[in-house]
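Hi support team,

I'm opening this ticket because the web form for multi-chain structure prediction keeps timing out on my end. I have pasted the exact lines I submitted so you can reproduce it. The total is 434 residues across two entries, so I didn't expect it to be a heavy job. Is there a limit I'm missing, or should I split the entries? Thanks in advance, R.K.
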Amino acid sequence: MRSETWIGAVLALVLLAPTVSWARGTYLEPERFLADVFDGAPPPPRVLFLRGTVKQTVREILGHRYPRLRVRYWLRGPRSAWILDEIGKERPITVGIGIEGGRVERVRVLVFRESRGDEVRHRFFTAQFDGAGLDTAQRLDRHIDNIAGATLSVRAVKKLVRLALYLDRAVRREDG
Amino acid sequence: MGAALSIPLLLLAVTGLLLNHADDLGLSRRGVPWPWLANWYGMDPGPLRAFRTRTHWVMEIDGSLYLDGRPVAEEAGRLYGALEEGPWLVAAAGGDLLLLEADSGVLAEVLRPGDGLPEPAHGLGRDRRGVLVRGGDHAWRPDADWLEWQPATPDSATWQTPQPPPPALAAGVRREALARMLNWERLLLDLHSARLLSRAGPWLTDLAGLGMALLAASGLWGWMRRHRARRAAQATGRTPRRIVPRDDVRGEDARGVP
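Hello R.K., no limit was hit. The queue was backed up. Here is the completed structure from your submission:
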C-alpha cells in the first residue's frame, strides 16, 4: 500500500475515533444479576421505605435526597442485593450491589447511559469494592482509585456502594 | 484595540469561567426558564398525551411526565396509561411503571423489566378482578404492594386510552417542556462561541481571539525591546534611554523632541 494511503488511514482512525461512542448500554440484565447473587434462585423482593433517620442518612451519603420513597431489595440469610441509580454527569447509572455479612460481595454496572466514563463497568474498577464495608461515619473503609476522565461516574458508583451497605444494615436492624 | 475588544473579552471570560465549572454547577441539568428563547432556537417538544385518573391528570410531552401540570419524571418515555389504585397512582411510561403516592404525587418507585416488572409495560387497565398491566403478549396482575406478579387472563378488561386535557393545563405543560429543552450549558456554549449571533458569530469570536493574540504579541514585543535596551545599557554602564512613543504626524516624540 502506498505511504499516502497508510497516512490517510491512520489519520482517519485518529480523527474519527472520538466520534464513536461505545459507552452507553445495558451490560448486565437485572434478572441475571439477581440470579448470580442468589445462585439462580432469587428470593421474593421486599421494599424499604425511606423515612426518618434512614432518609436523613441516605441524604448525607448521596449529598441529595434519594428521588424515591421506597427502595426494592432482595434478602436471604446474610446476603442482600440492591439495584440502585445515581446520576453520573447527566444520566443515571444503574448499579447492582451484592452484600454478604455486611460487606460487599460484588458490584456490577448494569446500565450505563452516559456517552463516556463507562470505565467504571470493568472489573479492574469494581473489584476494588470486594470485601469493603462502612466505617462509623458511613464511609467506605478503604480507598478507591479514581479513573481519569470518569470522575463523576466513579463518584456515583462509590455513593451507591455506600448506600447499599448502609441500607443493608438498616433492613437488618428493622428485622431485628 | 483594547477598548474595542473589551466586551467580547468580558463575554468570553465570564462564559468560559462558568463552562469550566459546568459539572459542579450542574449546568447541563438546569433548564433555562425562558420558553421564548427555546422557541427562538426552533425547539419543539412534540405532541402531548394525557390520561385522566380518579383525581388527577397525568400528561407526557417529550418523554417527561407531569402530574396536574407539575413535572414528576424526566425521560420517562411515552405514556401508555395511568390509574389510581389504593394509595398509589400508577403510570405506564417507556415500558416502566412509575409508582407515585396518589395524595402527594411523590415518586415512590420506578418498576423496570427485570427488577420490578416481568416484562415491559405497554398499557394499564382493569377487569372484574382488579388492575391489569399489559405487556408484550401477556397481561399481568400485581399484588397490593406492586411487588409480585401473576399472569392474568383478562375478564372483560377496559384498557386506558388518552383523553384531551384541559387547554390551560396543557398550555402550561407545553411552556414548561420548552423551558426544559434548553439548558444553561447549551446557552453558555452558544454565547461563548457567539453562535447566538447566527453564522457570523463564530467568525466574530475568531476575530476577538486574533485581536487578543495581537494584543499579547504586541505587549511581549514591547517588553522584549525594553528588556534588550536595559541589558545593553547595563553592559556599557550608561543609563538606558527611555523608549518614548513617537507622534508620527509631527515627527516628534511625546516630549516634543524631533
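A quick check on our side: Strands of chain A lie at 25-26, 46-49, 70-76, 79-87, 92-100, 103-112. Let us know if the file doesn't open in your viewer.
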